[in-house]
Amino acid sequence: MLEKLINQLGFRRIGVRLAISYGLLLILIAALILMPFSQIQKMTARNKEFTQKEMRSLLDVQALSLSAESVSNALLQLLTSSREKREIEYALVDVKNRQITDLIESLESNLTDQMQLDNLQRLKLRKENYYRIFNEMVNQLEDQGQEIAKQTFVEDVQPALSALLQESKILLDYEQKLVQQHQLQSQDELEKTGLLVIILSSVIILFAAVLAWLTTRSVIKPLAILEQNALRIASGDYKSQVPASNTEEVTRVGTALNLMSAAIAQRESDIEQFAYYDPITHLPNRTYLLKAFEHRELEHYGMILMDLARLKTINETLGFDTGDYVIADVAKRIQEVVKTGDTKQTGLLSKLTGGAFALLFPAQHKDTVTELFERIDAAMGQPVRCHQHAVDVSLVYGFAIVTEQKISLISLMRNAEVALYAAKRYTRQSAWYNDAQEASRLSHLSLLSDLRSAVKASELQMWLQPKLNLQNGRIYGFESLVRWQHPERGFISPAEFIPFAEKTGYIGIVTQWMLDSALLKLHAWKQHYPDLSIAVNVSTYDLRDRSFPERVVSLLKKYDVAPHLLKIEMTESGIMEDPQATIELLNRLRDTGVGLSIDDFGTGYSSLAYLQKLPVNELKIDRSFVSDIQHADATKKLVRTIIEMGHGLNLHVVAEGIEQEQEKITLSELGCDAMQGYLLSKPLYGNSLQEWMHLHIPLSQKT
Fold first, then answer.
1. How high is the pLDDT of residue 534?
2. Where is the EAL domain (predicted)?
3. Final residue before a domain boundary, out of 250, 276, 302
4. Which one of 27, 259, 402, 628 is most buried, counting C-beta atoms within 10 A?
5. Whole-angstrom Cα distance, residue 359 to residue 346?
6. Do the domain assignments include residue 448?
7. Count helices and strands in the chain by DSSP H and E runs
8. Residue 474: is its pLDDT beyond 70?
9. Extended strands (E) in 284-346
10. How far apart are CA 242 and CA 226, in angstroms?
11. Position 687 confidence tier, pLDDT thresholds 50, 70, 90
12. Whole domain around residue 488: which residue ranges?
């Protein structure tokens, strides 16, 4: 019943407790203030009444005593004055007597104490007796003379005045006694008021102490428990729970804190899962792998780095959901292989980016790695069945092992990545890491770091290979080719640095330099060779640069060159990486007036549907189609088809890599428009270029 009443009144709530407690405390403080104030008001009222009555009575009694004393002196003056002066003295005596009468009447109207009234009654009798004797003395003075009156004054009047004065003194003493009693009473009341204030203050202090203790018990202590639990949560301990409290607010906060702890624990678990595990395969990711071996040096460990081949094609053809399904299936197959071999307890399989996996395991020699590789590769023999599709899967492998000298995990992974890249570069299924690969990789990195400075230091060179019109036998332009003359390494082939420059984005500065050099050369030719053109090769990276057409226009204006003299060549495969975006960029380039050419045609996988949409002017047949074309009828038919297709699309068709006269004749017979190759000339530079131009460009082309 009591519990129910407590709940109904809300005493389990801190707010209700504090409101009641502080309300009572305020009532006590108000009582502490009001009760002394009331007492002081009463004392003030009594003092005021005392001042108005008792003090007035005291003053009247004092005045009465003085009047009684002064009338005696006035009577003596009267008795010793001559008859002529008695009238004045009589008036003075009458004044004194009236004062005595008035003072007695005033006292009679003010006095309330019975003893005072009794004294006053006796005082009145003494006054009446005095007045009687005074009148007899006055009669004697007028009728019998001064001597008889003096004798009466001495024998009767003076005693009567003395009696009157004595009674007034008694009354005065009693009035003084009453004043003292009143002062003592006021002092006593003041002391009682002070004691009351002390008692109330003690009660308030005691109540405040009890309230502070109760507050500490019901608020501070539970809050301290809440604080301790919050600190445990902050330190990562989410298992401890805040116990229930008999305070409603603390219970609610504790419940909320418990819920928050559980929610944070769940979120941290989710974050950890997301941070350290792959969402598709649920395998540990690269971060987990590196963290697990962060402070360890590895010895006698091997690593197989695997990358799912053709994942990009699967995603583009069948969709990313199919690609994810294939990745998950491949992960299961690798896990099954790991669980069945010696690596069951010690091998750690992790999922890297894309379709890449890393398998770390103890290995004493390469045979262990090879045996595990063979079992994993065998597990990939069956296609992955996803919905209505059967997808053949194959992995590319990179192997690395550390046996004697200890290295870190990140170094071992780097070695495996180098081996994997080597396998991809040379289109092999697998490759082992070796020091030569590392040296090659470091060499390429060094070249890339030198490439930017090479542009500024004029280490690059633009070589030009002429193009011949097969119909009229005239030279109509050149293709520009970049060469690098390194100050320390000497001549560096484009095949050595261009692929890496394209992958890292450095190719952009090379393209910019080639455009500058080509337009500078065309500007120099304006006087003597105004109709010659120069073609510049651009990379896939350049075709993704949306600002590329604007940069070309800016350079044309800078060098004051007619746009049609500049040709832009791009590979077929580069166009097909993103045909929609590339077509939009090529349309913008065509609007500038420059010529556009598809280089190495036939080596890619371009769609004829896209080919007819490309705003190009020229088609260049790859050398692989024209080499010994005079002896290959099938190739001849294919090239004829390409030429006819190009002409059907209003394209100028050029054959590359012509090295034999018979190849030139055959292509001319097939209707090819132009050619370039070693038969005509190798790429030329500097004085060799100038000499060749003087010899081979007809004077009719000079101005």
1. 96
2. 444-697
3. 276
4. 402
5. 10
6. no
7. 26, 18
8. yes
9. 297-298, 301-308
10. 7
11. very high
12. 458-698
